[in-house]
Every structure is written in C-alpha cells, then in structure tokens.
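Protein Record: Sequence and Backbone Structure Tokens
======================================================

Structure line: whole-number tokens from a learned vocabulary of local backbone shapes, matched to residues.

Purpose: to set a sequence beside its fold so the mapping can be learned.

___
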Amino acid sequence: MTTLYRTGLFASALVLGTAANAQTARVQVIHNCADAAAAVVDVYLDNTLLLDDFEFRTASPYVDAPAGVQFTVGIAPSNSTGAGDAIYTEDFTLANNETYVIVASGIISGSGYSPAPAFSLEVFATGREAASMMGNTDVLVFHGSTDAP
C-alpha cells in the first residue's frame, strides 16, 4: 500500500458525491506506459470508472480527489466492464489541500520488452497548477523511458 499524506487522485467530488465540507486534493494523471498492451486503458477509483479509454501519452486535467480516506486505483484494459477486470491495483490515502501528478509508467507485458521495468504509478506531491513565482515556469521532469539509459 502506498500512503501519501497529501491530496488527490483523479476522483472528482461529483463522482464520489462528497459533501461541501469533505477534504479534497488536486490530481493530474499522465499515461506514460509505452507497453502496447496498455496503449489504451480504463482507470477505476474503487468501483467507479474515472478515465475511460485513457490513451498513452495523454494527461488528464487537474481534478478534485478525495483526501483522508483510503481508496483503490485500478488499471484495466480499455474493454473492461468493471473494476474487477483490473490488471494492476494500488491503494492510496491522500492528504488535504495538496496537488499531485501521478505518472503511469513501466511495462505490463510479461515478454517482448527488454529491459521491462514493472508497471507502477509514480506519485509526485509537487504538482503545480500555476508557477510558484510570478513570471517563472515550474517544471517537473520524469525520465519514464523503459529502454533508455
């Protein structure tokens, strides 16, 4: 289980039906898994479909996500019919009022790639929706190539 004491994973308050006083975080999800078997995936939060047909090399907008409660993120094939079809799951607990970037990276297939680093959800609690200083640009660099030095 990955425990994060900052907020957010791509579940909007509308999807979860959270109350106005609920704790939330902000999250952006980036699909960087170059495995052909995961070119297009569905992303679930517990049993709720959050991102349908989420394509490689795309990113979600920043969205509100639940904070202070544990939930399971599931990655499933694009033709999934529910969270039970997930080929990867990970538990998260996020903290209130934080902004995250979550990068799907690595390889799902058992063969055909060398090297083949295991699939993972890399979480960065340094997400920014605006630069930290006016007139500047904040950059987060992630080397997600599975076969480059």
Notes: The longest helix spans residues 13-16.
